[in-house]
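Course assignment 3, question 2. Fill in each field.
Student: A.L.
Task: Predict the tertiary structure for the chain below.
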Amino acid sequence: MVNDYTEMLKHTRMRLRFVRTFLMGIMTLTICCTANAQSVAAGQKMIYYERYKTAIRIFDDLVKVNPRDAEAAYWLGQCYLMQPKPAVSTAKQVWSAALQSNAGNGLLTAAMGHIDLLENRNSEGQAKFESALGSSNGKDAELLMAIARANIDARAGDYTYAIDILNRALAIKNAKKVNIYILLGNAYRKLIDGGNADKSYRSALEIEPQNGLAWIRLGKIYQTQKNYEIMLEYYNKSVQGDPAFAPGYLELYNHYSFRDVNLAKEFLDKYIANSDQDCNTDLFAADYLFRAGKYSEAITRSGELANGKCATEIGTRLKMLNAYCYDRLGDSVAAKREIDAFMQAEDPAKILGSDYEIAAKVTAKFPGSEVKAIEYCNKAFETDTAGRLGYLMQLIDLYKKTGNGELVAATWDRLFTVKPRPSNVDLYNRAMAHLTVKHYTLSDTLWQQYKEKYPDQVYGYTYRIKCNEAQDTSMALGLAVPHLENMIAFAQRDTVKYKNQLISALYKLVVYHLNIRKDKPKAAEYLTQYLLYDPSNEEARKTLQKLKGG
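Answer field:
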């Protein structure tokens, strides 16, 4: 009995230990899952605030604890791509390692497709996206957003495909529609479709009115349009709803840094206070000295950072700050030296459109370096879609300097493919560029467009005459005749303002009907009109008398 009791007690204790262990396991799993969910959310929040250093620490800890945490691994890799200097190789290592523990995971497969696009392996990337979609039957909104994010982020991405993917994500129940709408807006911006980008960001704000990122993206549209009043309204709203939203302060700093350095300093201080303290915040502090016009001090501070703990992280980037400072100091030789060193040292994938822009500007100052300046400008065009119009205008100026009229005309054609609403000045310059290089047929078509769009301006009438005269110098074909007649009708609206155009057109029609058509009555008719506006022309009067038989 005693032995039976002892054995029963032992088994009872074992069962109790098992129950306690089981319950503790459930509690631990529950706490772990809850902590994981909170940590992933906390990491995503840090990404939202652009506090990538903190976000990396959060996700890295999660992956170390649980290598099978695909979501944490995905966002860890994204952190490395979203930094001011994207670390593509590091993101690739993170995702490759995560896939070893999560073979076939759709999110990580899409992540590797992202790497393929960044490394210009488009077909491989697309294959991975399709494979990832197959693993979820297209029902996973986070996966769809990952695929869209990859295509929006990479220069080789398919923005239209991204929009299609995101529209599919919107149809999924419980999808994070705020994030989807922001990504949609980003995709439309890459397509230079400001209208749909604006609509997408506003859709996000209807759901979450205090979303700072949506306000900033909306402001960017108006910044591109140089509508700074509305831009500032939206940038301010990005921090009014959340005073800890550092990216909003950074945009305000960038705007005011060349307009009001004292106000800019206030925004910079708020940006630094709400950001991870690292070499990048030190870089902005040095940048402020440049914006404040303290160029020599900025160069000194840059040297201190480059020779200290920040040498590896931002040392190369500091060379561009130096270049800006030397350019402002009028030392083009030193500016070019810093630019050349930067271009040789920096990873091409990390060079910004603004880097190429200043490189083109400085390099163009050195005779014989125009070809290199043009190369930089073309790279700026390829890198920064938002600034494409400015880069094209810079290219036009460079081609003019080299005397390459053909490329001036071709660049005006490029401008019309990216500018949503070209102005009358744009159309004038494009048509004139083609006329200058004797593209008479195309130029004539463009001047006809000008005449139709701006019928109250004389230029369309004037240059249609010139294009057709150039193609029919003897007037034998009469190509310019209908355009001369159109000029007469136009000029008669204001015979004082357009007197020279009127008498020139009438004179040419006299010559045409007299010498080509041999039609003396018609020539006399036009010559009679001519004398109404140039009555002192005795030679014309004598010719008219002869035509009438006098």
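Instructor remarks: The longest helix spans residues 2-48. Residues 8 and 14 are 10 Å apart (CA to CA).
Grade: pending
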